[in-house]
Each structure stands twice: as structure tokens, then as C-alpha cells.
Design goal:
By secondary structure, the protein is an all-alpha fold. Helices cover 73% and strands 0% of the residues.
Length: 308
């Protein structure tokens, strides 16, 4: 029997999936560069860190046997979705090495899966050491990765160097570790007052808003903004706040829906542009509508094919 899920945390994942669609669809690109930057290069960048933090939070409960099954599942997901997205990446292959890049670094939004695999493997190793060492190493790696992204942005080379910063080492592992340590140190039990959790989340969001504004002023809309210094605080703080929201638990469908939206939306964005020549706003609405509309079908199909 499937275990009930924490409703608020899963709703947070659903919101994160919607934000991922806005990152790739850039709905306000034709309407306002400032609004487009604030959403697609700003607040919506919270989404993937939240996914990583939530995964790390529940990864802390996985035992040895469960870990092997978990890694096998993520690997299969990576291979299946990479195969399904072959029409979108095969035309860019110029030599065999490019195929290896797709397999080990992922195509487009599928970078999340190999980064998750390698980041979780590193977390599994580091979890054997003192948790304080894991904390320091994870934070240091995240700061280095974010610093490198800022450097590349200021140099105008961030897009060509995106794989040096958006990867398992500087992105996935530190955020997975943040969620893992949140659980390992039993932070929810130590911070019981929801008002305090709300204050922490709002303070982290204020930090993020300031950093978004600063990046917009220093770098502008031509940069890459996968990493923000504030996100290593915002994602755990938001998870902590949601953990304190007590709604009736739900089954796995909510989590499966957010996963289905994440995996399918990129195809629908391309479909909307190729078939109808939609504007960025139209593409985003089209992709969101079809991703949610087809999610029940994907969930049912996932009973036979490893899609989720």
C-alpha cells in the first residue's frame, strides 16, 4: 500500500514544477524584459533547488537496500526520458562524444537526473562522516559554484560554461545535503513554532529578492542564473515552513503529477512553437495545459513503463 505523502510539501513540488515551465517558457519575454527577468531568471529559479532539497530530506530515511533500488530507478528514468527526447537532441550530435555528453550531463531539463544520481552518490559517501563536515563541504561547494557562475556571467561566458556550474558537484550535492541535514539534525523538531519558520522563510526570500535585483543591475538578462547564494537558504527554509503546515495526507498522485509535468513540459513547449508558432506566453500556457492534461495518462502508463 503506498505511503501517504505530506500534502504541503507535495504542493510545494507541484508549484516548483509550474515554475520550471516558466523558466523554460519565459512567458513575459515579449511583454517586459524586467518582468521576464524577475520571474524566469529570478524567483522561478527556486524550483529545482526545492526539488533537490526535498529529495535530500527524504533520502535521509532510505536504508542500504532501499538506496540501491532508488539509484536503479533514477538511472532507468534518465535512460527512458533521454530516449523519449531523442528527436530533440539527435540533430545536434556531431560526433560520438556528444552522445556521451547527453548521457552523462543530460539534455536540456533532463540534466536534473544525472546530477541527482551523482549528487546522491556523493551524499551517500559523505553521510558516513561527521554531519558538520558534510555541512561545511556542501556549503563551500555551493558557494564556489555560485561564485563561478557570477564570474562567468560578468565575463559574458556563462552560457558556454554552464556545465561547469550546473552539475552534481556545485548544484545537486549541496542542495541534497541541505535537505538531508535538515532531516538528520531533526530541525523540524527543534524549530516547532510555525511563526518562527515563517519568519525564516520570509527573511530568506527577502535575501533572494535583493540578490535578484543586484544580478539584474550588474549582469542583466544575458546571463545564466541557475545558482543564487540565497537559494541554499530559501529552499530549506521553504521546506521547513511547509513541513509545519498540517493538511490531511494524500497518496502518491500529487507527487507523480509534479514529476509528470516536469518531464513532459519541455516537449510541449517545442510542440507549441513548431505547430502553432505561439508567443512565449502562449507556449507557456500551452505547455502547462497539456502537461497537466496528460499527467493522468502518464501516471497510468507509468504502471507499465518506468516514466515516474
Amino acid at each position: 500500500m503506498p505511503q501517504p505523502r505530506h500534502t504541503a510539501i507535495e504542493i510545494g513540488r507541484l508549484l516548483a514544477a509550474v515554475l520550471v515551465v516558466t523558466v523554460h517558457g519565459r512567458p513575459f519575454a515579449d511583454l517586459s524584459p524586467q518582468l521576464d527577468f524577475a520571474l524566469s531568471d529570478g524567483i522561478a529559479r527556486f524550483a529545482v533547488p526545492y526539488f533537490f532539497v526535498v529529495t535530500g530530506y527524504f533520502f535521509a530515511d532510505i536504508q542500504d537496500g532501499g538506496a540501491r533500488r532508488w539509484f536503479a530507478r533514477i538511472l532507468i528514468l534518465h535512460l527512458v526520458w533521454t530516449a523519449l527526447y531523442t528527436p530533440l537532441w539527435i540533430g545536434r550530435i556531431e560526433n560520438p562524444a556528444d552522445i556521451l555528453v547527453v548521457l552523462f550531463a543530460g539534455h536540456a531539463h533532463l540534466w536534473y537526473l544525472p546530477a541527482l544520481l551523482l549528487g546522491a552518490a556523493l551524499l551517500l559517501v559523505s553521510a558516513r562522516f561527521d554531519a558538520r563536515i558534510t555541512s561545511v563541504v556542501a556549503l563551500a561547494l555551493y558557494l564556489v559554484g555560485t561564485g563561478l557562475e557570477v564570474h562567468f556571467n560578468l565575463a559574458g561566458t556563462a552560457k558556454s560554461n554552464i556545465r561547469f556550474t550546473r552539475n552534481f558537484l556545485f548544484d545537486a550535492y549541496p542542495l541534497l545535503a541541505a535537505g538531508f541535514l535538515l532531516r538528520r539534525f531533526a530541525i523540524p523538531a527543534r524549530v516547532r513554532r510555525q511563526s518562527l519558520r515563517t519568519g525564516l522563510a520570509l527573511a530568506a526570500l527577502a535575501f533572494l529578492a535583493g540578490e535578484i535585483a543586484l544580478n539584474g543591475w550588474l549582469i542583466g538578462t544575458a546571463g545564466v542564473f541557475d545558482l543564487y547564494f540565497a537559494l541554499i537558504l530559501v529552499a530549506p527554509a521553504f521546506l521547513l515552513w511547509l513541513e509545519g503546515v498540517r493538511w490531511a495526507p494524500v497518496g502518491p498522485t500529487l507527487a507523480q503529477t509534479s514529476t509528470a509535468v516536469y518531464f513532459t513540459h519541455y516537449a510541449f513547449l517545442h510542440l507549441g512553437e513548431a505547430l502553432f508558432g505561439l508567443s512565449p506566453l502562449g507556449q507557456t500556457v500551452f505547455a502547462l495545459a497539456l502537461s497537466f492534461a496528460t499527467a493522468p495518462f502518464v501516471i497510468r502508463l507509468a504502471r507499465r513503463v518506468p516514466l515516474l
